[in-house]
Write a structure and sequence with these properties.
Elements: E1 8-13, H1 29-44, H2 49-56, E2 59-69, E3 78-88, E4 92-101, E5 104-116, H3 128-138, E6 144-149, H4 151-169, H5 174-177, E7 186-192, E8 197-207, E9 210-218, H6 227-241, E10 246-252, H7 256-261, E11 265-273, E12 276-284
Parallel strand pairs: 9-10
Antiparallel strand pairs: 1-3, 2-5, 3-4, 4-5, 6-7, 7-8, 8-9, 10-12, 11-12
Length: 285
């Protein structure tokens, strides 16, 4: 196996607690590394695991995990864990995995997951919809679609995301979250290939020539992926198409680095909105 065999790689560092008396990673921890990488694989597929399995009416159970140990990882090594789906059976999903340190293959694994009833654990046919998403990802196809539209079209789904993120999670009062601008804004909504809404944002005119982006929200299981960036890029592309020369936003301080990576620059001192620290950021289009 080579790194280039895998479209998805999860990166981690070996912790002190994971090494044994010989100073190398205890062999059992590699199963934890593989499980961590599988969680990342579902995020890369834009599939929130728990909600997806509930929608499919089952769950995935490990049937087999066979590991070949070819080398040893040591404390503070940076490891990349590759995961790919090799093939499907009637109810099974066969997965290849590998642990790399740089280009060196340390561990390779052959795993089988079985789709089954979540309670009885009796095997069921693996849904075609899941096969299609996995095969599409492995073939390099996009896993989400970002649509631009008005509140009448996207408001139910966008509003549900914002309610979950801003009101329920961050504790922002509902009367501060909803405003009259929603009706006139353009909204972006990211959906996965199951049609599940995952992220949203909106755009309106700030002053002539300057657009303002706001209400950027990504569901918790999908954070750390590229979905938020794709929503942001879609809104900026729409602003540019409409002739705006600059885009402005008020970023939560915890998200400042996200916007810096997208080419925004900080302007002015930080301030509070809804009890949360923010900073104004701008980018030319």
């Amino acid at each position: 196996m080579k790194r280039t065999d895998f479209r998805y790689l999860e990166t981690l560092r070996v912790r002190w607690v994971e090494i044994d008396a010989q100073g190398i990673v205890f062999n059992g921890h590699y199963l934890t590394y593989l499980d961590t990488a599988m969680s990342g694989y579902w995020r890369a597929l834009a599939l929130p695991y728990a909600d997806t399995m509930k929608q499919l009416g089952g769950d995935l159970f490990v049937r087999r995990a066979a590991l070949d140990y070819l080398g040893s990882a040591r404390y503070d090594d940076r490891l990349d864990i590759g995961v790919r789906c090799r093939e499907f059976g009637n109810s099974s999903m066969k997965v290849d995995a590998a642990v790399f340190r740089g280009e060196q293959l340390l561990v390779q694994a052959d795993m089988i997951y079985v789709f089954a009833d979540a309670v009885a654990q009796t095997p069921q046919r693996l849904p075609d919809a899941l096969r299609d998403v996995v095969n599409g990802f492995e073939a390099g196809q996009p896993v989400i679609d970002v649509g631009i539209g008005h509140w009448q079209e996207l408001g139910d789904a966008a509003g549900a995301i914002r309610r979950q993120v801003f009101i329920e999670e961050q504790g922002i009062p509902a009367d501060m979250e909803w405003d009259a601008a929603d009706a006139s804004c353009l909204h972006a909504l990211a959906r996965n290939r199951f049609g599940m809404p995952l992220a949203t944002g909106r755009m309106l005119e700030h002053v002539p020539g300057v657009a303002k982006i706001g209400r950027m929200a990504v569901l918790r299981p999908m954070r750390g992926t590229q979905i938020g960036r794709q929503v942001l890029d879609a809104l900026m592309a729409e602003a540019k198409q409409q002739g705006y020369r600059e885009v402005l936003l008020h970023a939560q301080l915890s998200a400042e680095n996200f916007y810096l990576r997208a080419g925004f620059q900080r302007r002015g001192a930080s301030f509070e909105e809804a009890g949360i620290g923010h900073v104004e950021m701008v980018r030319a289009l």
